[in-house]
Request: fold
Amino acid sequence: MVEVRYHCPHCGAITSVDRDPTLHDESVTREPLAGWSYAQPSDVAAGEAPEAEGIEFVCLGNADVEAGPSEARADPGREGGANDPVPGKDGCGRTFYLNFVKYEDGRPVDHREPNVDPPRFDFRK
Reply:
């Protein structure tokens, strides 16, 4: 098991989970992906959710997490968010999802929703 850190896409608070190092991360999202099954962090840490395709987190933050050399120190004025981790920040209590790479027939499944009805433009007069 290895400790892996993720930041909440809502507020930027850092949280961590102990998990199998062979799992391959796909993305962290605010909403669950259609067709993915999610486990709780405690189940993953105990090795009790081998079929899970992701982890459902509740953002609690981790005040013990210190900023690394490439991360800025927690700044009370910073909001955090999808691309702005804030080490040491208290969590916001919202749910977010870690999605592992999912395979069907030996090929990775694209996690993006298909653009079924793209906008159409007709510039002819």
Notes: The longest strand covers residues 2-7.
